[in-house]
Fold this sequence. Notes:
12 helices
Amino acid sequence: MEFRYLGNSGFKISEVTFGNWLTHGSQVGNEVATQCVRAALDAGISTFDTADVYANTAAETVLGEALKGERRQSLEIFTKVFGPTGPKGHNDMGLSRKHIRESIDGSLARLQTDYVDLYQAHRYDFETPLEETMQAFADIVRQGKALYIGVSEWTAGQIREGHTLAKELGVQLISNQPQYSMLWRVIEAEVIPTSQELGLSQIVWSPMAQGVLSGKYHPGKPAPEGSRATDAKGGSKMIERWMSPEVLSGVQQLKPIAEEVGLTMAQLSIAWVLQIKIVASAIMGASRPEQIAGNAAASGVKLDQVVMDKIDAAIGSLAERDPAQTKSPAAREA
């Protein structure tokens, strides 16, 4: 496992992050979840990403239990705030000072730690003044409950405004967590150039496009039993956009490219996002511990320009590139 600096800071994270979005507290049992965390540690992964909204706080609890007993200084633990939690009342979501303050304390208790390394605004909150949000984040950093702050799925303009306020408050906004893969490239036109200018890294989620880029789905054939496409709790709705015959046929053209460089298709997809220097880490989930070691081996892989060009030719116009696809909910539901 190799490591990269996160943003314009001295803080390093593993090139592959273990995330528990659709798995812990939901798709898999706690025993299997713990086995996956152990497998991630064995593969050299030191960075773990979760959020209070995942399985309505259960994912944080499972991760905290799985990491109990590990040397805290050797881990990088990330979580997020925004989505509805608890009974989902009128103050149980968003980026208000009240919700942020209550959420960080809940997250720390569930994760069984005194601080998180990175606390992230899971989405942009149009109903709370950005000044209020950033002041609340700055206070949490000063209290030692978070070391750094980041955002997730913010537009270039939102990132710029947040960065300006953070700097004025004397804290570091060092990362953005967007969706990014060969098939979803909406951050390339605006978010990446802005982040490069301001010194923010990308911690990308779904680098395998919900598993489609692993090559296990074939055009004209039913989805494999037990796969994400067949699991209502495991993201079948989100994967629908990639299940067209055109996309699945294009993905299958990646197989000989992967074989040529001695990688699985899953490894190729993770290695592809890591070729971009501003990407500090690719988030990988797993429902079985045996999935982890192979995918983590994508760390450190170098793809030359010939291979990158072949990938672009295979995917072609199938990739979504519209920057307007980076967006947060316009209004909260209470």
